[in-house]
Amino acid sequence: MKLLDDFELFGNIAKAENFINRIKDGKFLFSLVISYTETCEIPGITFAGADKESIQYTPPADAEYLHYGNCKTIDKIPMTPDGKPTPALLTKTALESSSIPHIVINAGSKISPQLPFIQTGLSPGKNISINPAMTDLQVSQAVNYGRIIGRTLASITDCLIIGESIPGGTTTALAVMKALGYKAKVSSSIPNNPVVLKNQIASMALDRINSDNPYDVIAKVGDPMIPFVTGMLSAASEINPIMLAGGTQMTAVLAFASKIGFNEKNTAIGTTSYISDDESANFKNLVSEIADVPAIAVNPLLKNSKFPGLRAFSEGFAKEGVGAGGTIIASLLKNRNNSSKFLELAEKEYGRIFTSQ
Amino acid sequence: MKLLDDFELFGNIAKAENFINRIKDGKFLFSLVISYTETCEIPGITFAGADKESIQYTPPADAEYLHYGNCKTIDKIPMTPDGKPTPALLTKTALESSSIPHIVINAGSKISPQLPFIQTGLSPGKNISINPAMTDLQVSQAVNYGRIIGRTLASITDCLIIGESIPGGTTTALAVMKALGYKAKVSSSIPNNPVVLKNQIASMALDRINSDNPYDVIAKVGDPMIPFVTGMLSAASEINPIMLAGGTQMTAVLAFASKIGFNEKNTAIGTTSYISDDESANFKNLVSEIADVPAIAVNPLLKNSKFPGLRAFSEGFAKEGVGAGGTIIASLLKNRNNSSKFLELAEKEYGRIFTSQ
Description:
Order of helices and strands of chain A: EHEHHEEHEHHHHEHEHHEHHH
Strand order of the largest sheet of chain A: 1-8-7-6-5-2-3-4
Mean pLDDT of chain A: 93
Largest sheet of chain A: 8 strands, mixed
Radius of gyration of chain A: 18 Å
Low-confidence stretches of chain A: none
Structural class of chain A: alpha/beta
Number of helices of chain A: 14
Oligomer: homodimer
């Protein structure tokens, strides 16, 4: 299939090809899980927001932008402090160009988006450098609610794509993977990845762990997104193919899922090449180490863009998030498109945002 | 098709047969819209709850029962004051026996259900005998949010079924239809239908109307469910077949929809024969008067039940609600079943509830 030229497959290659063949002619549904961890309030930990105050608005604003093409809770779409746009721009381009429907799920976001969304009632996670993230009960609740939603959504589509928007989430993901015994190095929304700081925070959180119980581990060092998406995956993968759309944070989901059970045969990770090629992280090895689940990376060719704000993704800013990689993969499959065409559409959307506002 | 023996078709019969043929082999999705109007607090207006205090819990409890098989916000499933069960029992039997997925939408319920649901942020409606139900802005918001949800849900299924749970909703439906110029007589959850009281309340509400604008009419005498479901129908019927599952209240939706626009070709009403045969109401004529939309009524044969609590539906209690008629129709189509088999399953569920609790 010509399309495979645009994808890099890793993990079990035969499984990856098989996964693509199973999903390419079916219906896709994208679910965006928005959440929050107070860990993102630690200075220097994330660029997912123009300043400290605005970080909490990034998840609902990402959701609003996907729906409306602009935001309601803030004036402009989420940006880094120096004006580089949220990866939701890539997601929006992918979804809109391929008419893939999407639904927003609030699993612990501090702020609700101004649009209809699936409500779970889950609370934001605490700052893991000073507190347990959640109680064990909250983790169970998140998993159970994830299961309900995952079962419903998987049963009404042929392939469920799950993405996330949770600032600071790579740090909690790092802590979770370390706590579950994986040699994780993680990606970041910041090009000069603050590895030392992330490891420091993870260590402080890990010191709080006093049991091998994976639910307890997540409660101590995770965030609400991880158990919720794990619950979704666990139930949904029993029904239909599921694509976890993301990088580091989805490997943490995979790590927890491998403890509580899920169907590997129906699971793949979809991401951007900016994650899989990130030398400060070890995404490819991590996925293989955690589970026999294939991964698919797409290169959206943003380094060829005429816009610096799009080229930035290829230079290490934001890299992935809001399900960008997975939804680009789905859009290319559905449209029988290639990455050059996608770049053209992304530039058009970039132009629309930055000239119309 | 043998199945048609179990259905009574009315309105445009050819259209009804065509609608059934288009949906019978596809995927169904049931959406339950829960809402609230303070009109239900008027003594004698509804039996949808064991007592005045518990009526507000009926919508979330219906939703919880569909999901879990029991309720979380109250101890037992919703009942009339003398212990007759909610029509959700029929819906649950239908959905479970045919593995039709469902999703709950909170469009103004006073109490949130303890499960994941689609949140709209809409407020409960006011008591129309003393106040406008909503502001015009709230009506627009409800329609817009309904459109978003309707578009999403219709695009991920082959036939979207929409049901409601809103105690007191037949009174607001009556007022809406009168205000929009239809000679409506409505059904009730009470066998000795409090027609005089309902008409009195509707009249008081109608006195408040001072414009022909349909949005303004809904704001003055409606409830949040009506504009929300109308918005859903309006957007969803442009995409795929939609079955409005209900009686009187869905005719009010149809009345408002015929003012703001929807696709008649993709729309049908599905209900129980207890509604279409109700001599105190005029359901059949009303539907034809409002729009060229077919209606399908199923007789679930509950008068043959060994349980008085099930026979009661055929004797005028509750009759319909929580999408019972529409989901029974879908389950018979999907299972290639008949009403006798359905009765057997409903009795099993009745037995489970009343012996296990």
